[in-house]
Specification:
Blueprint: H1 2-9, H2 11-15, H3 18-26, H4 32-82, H5 85-90, H6 93-135, H7 139-157, H8 159-185, H9 187-193, H10 196-245, H11 250-283, H12 285-300, E1 319-327, E2 337-345, E3 349-354, H13 360-367, E4 375-380, E5 383-384, H14 390-394, E6 397-400, H15 411-415, H16 426-435, H17 439-445, H18 463-476, E7 481-485, H19 493-506, E8 511-516, E9 527-532, E10 535-540, H20 542-548, H21 550-565
Length: 566
């Protein structure tokens, strides 16, 4: 456009310039009017070509940036899922969610896209400088020196402030995700206690802190442009006044000053855009730091065990044992388990009981391969199980926790947990629900049977119904070992008895380990292990332990007293 405008406004000057002389040598037969028309058509064609190239570049930029974001999110999710259970005990799920979703999104939109803009700005500025050098050889260096020095100085002066903004935004965003995680996981209690204002205030504090920090970014990025105009005008005015004071002819000064002003005016948009993008890049550094920290952990972490889909599930014929197992949680002063020895025979119904904090759930987590003992071994038929064996071992385990987590999808998909819809066997789903004593309710009371949504976290089901869905989930995969970790706490005694009887009569050879506070759940066990202080204090049948184990006897008496009071 610039050569065309110069040709159209002042053909003589343009034709005598170096560029005009070269152009006339290529098109000597064209007069001035034809040359102007030709130059105009050429300018329009170049604009169309440039716009097409810009559109293609935008498409490629978007595909690359969002593809990179997808790759980062998937890698982070796989990294999190590959970590041992102890890793998740140390990490806050809200912070991990923020890193995977929010920080990657910010990295894509506030880092990758601005980096592309920085490259474009540098390229544009370079070609603009080349054009200015051709047209005004002495004004271009002066303009780039003046503007570059100004923006470089401002960028350096504001460095610490930008770092502070980045840290404040990261802390505030973490606070928002943290409060929201607490809010939605405790919603029932919040509504019951009528403490909505407390959580709204906590979220508002983090939201306000984030808004206050984010407000500074456009000030730091755009502020220098508005300061530059009076500064540049003042500098130009000082130059002119100095020339006048020196006795020089002002009419000779004004063209030179105008050329410098024009060069600055041409360069200013590109340099301002470059500066603004660099401000955004440095202000979003916290997102890069969070992602890099997770990826560094992923690179340093031990490779995950082989996926169970490529391993043959481990079967056993005789015994499952914990041998001299000791385990201490991070930052704990005492061990949860101390030289624990436990043996479960194949096909028996075993119970694990004890007061709160005695180590029952920790022992179950080690049997499940979720926690690695500090000392001792897990043995299957006398063979130690290593870390590489655990995925295949867990293929043979059905686990039902006290708090069953249900997905916001159909009852069928909740029972066949983790399977794509096309891989679900409806008959196995129905059989698992029958054994869990849920078939009559699902088919007789739910409007769409197994296709009825469970609601978020099972909101449409009672606590007992959620536990029985969790039990059906475990039974669907036909386990050899079924671990019930307080899994019947929301069921009445009659239902518990029917469920246990249905399991034992329908699943031939299944081994059951029931962890319970209510001793009615374990009254029919073949072997009951009574834990106290991280060790097995005594074991035997219910009547045997009542007769010779004081701690167990106290639990039994308390249970009977509670049942009578009810």
């Amino acid at each position: 456009m610039l050569p065309f405008l110069m040709l159209a406004t002042d053909p003589g000057r343009f034709l005598h310039s170096p560029l005009g002389v070269q152009l006339v040598t290529y098109f000597p037969q064209l007069d001035t009017d034809a040359l102007i028309i030709t130059a105009g058509l050429f300018a329009v064609a170049m604009m169309m070509l440039a716009n097409a190239a810009s559109l293609l570049a935008e498409v490629m930029r978007a595909r690359y940036a969002h593809g990179l974001g997808h790759w980062l999110q998937l890698r982070l999710v796989r990294h999190v899922l590959s970590q041992p259970y102890a890793y998740h005990l140390r990490r806050n799920s809200s912070v991990l969610t923020k890193t995977i979703v929010n920080d990657v999104d910010r990295f894509t939109h506030r880092i990758v896209f601005p980096l592309y803009d920085v490259f474009c700005c540098v390229s544009t500025s370079f070609f603009l400088l080349v054009a200015l050098f051709v047209l005004e050889p002495w004004a271009a260096p002066l303009a780039i020196f003046a503007l570059g020095s100004y923006y470089g100085l401002v960028f350096r002066v504001l460095r610490r402030r930008r770092q502070g903004v980045s840290q404040r935004m990261n802390a505030a965003m973490q606070g928002q995700f943290f409060v929201l995680g607490q809010l939605f996981s405790s919603l029932k209690m919040i509504l019951t206690r009528h403490c909505e204002a407390f959580f709204a205030k906590r979220f508002g504090q983090s939201s306000s802190a984030y808004a206050g920090a984010a407000t500074l970014i456009p000030i730091y990025s755009s502020g220098p442009k508005y300061l530059l105009e009076p500064v540049a005008f003042g500098a130009l005015m000082v130059w002119i006044i100095a020339e006048i004071s020196a006795g020089n002819d002002v009419m000779r000064v004004l063209p030179a000053a105008g050329m410098v002003a024009m060069a600055c005016y041409r360069l200013l948009p590109s340099l301002q855009l470059l500066y603004g993008r660099l401000v955004v890049l440095t202000s979003m550094r916290h997102a890069v730091d969070e992602i890099v920290a997770e990826l560094r952990d992923a690179a340093q972490a031990a490779p995950p065990p082989t996926s169970p889909t490529s391993e043959r599930p481990l079967s056993w014929q005789r015994t499952l044992e914990l041998v001299d197992v000791t385990f201490t949680y991070p930052n704990a002063t005492t061990s949860a388990l101390r030289q624990l020895n436990l043996q479960i025979r194949k096909g028996e119904f075993a119970g694990l009981v004890g007061a709160t904090g005695s180590g029952k759930s920790t022992a179950a987590d080690i049997l499940l391969g979720l926690l690695e003992p500090d000392e001792g071994q897990v043995r299957l038929d006398g063979r130690p199980l290593g870390r590489e064996d655990m995925p295949a071992w867990r293929e043979r385990i059905g686990y039902v926790p006290q708090k069953v987590v249900l997905l916001d999808t159909t009852i069928e998909e909740n029972i066949a947990f983790g399977l794509p819809r096309e891989a679900i066997d409806p008959e196995r789903v129905r059989e698992a629900a029958r054994v869990a004593q849920m078939l009559e309710f699902i088919e007789g009371h739910l409007p769409h049977g197994f296709q009825t949504p469970a609601g978020e976290c099972g909101a449409f089901l009672s606590g007992g119904q959620q536990q029985r869905i969790g039990l059906a989930r475990a039974l669907y995969f036909e386990p050899e070992l079924l671990v019930l970790d307080e899994a019947t706490s929301a069921l009445d005694n009659d239902t518990v008895a029917r469920v246990i009887e249905a399991i034992r009569s329908n699943l031939d050879g299944v081994t059951i380990l029931a962890i319970a506070h209510r001793l009615n759940t374990v009254r029919g066990c073949d072997t009951i292990f009574y834990m106290h202080g991280g060790v097995i204090e005594c074991q035997g049948r219910f009547d045997e332990l009542t007769a010779r184990c004081p701690g167990f006897r106290r639990l039994a008496q308390l249970g009977e007293a509670t049942q009578e009071a009810a």
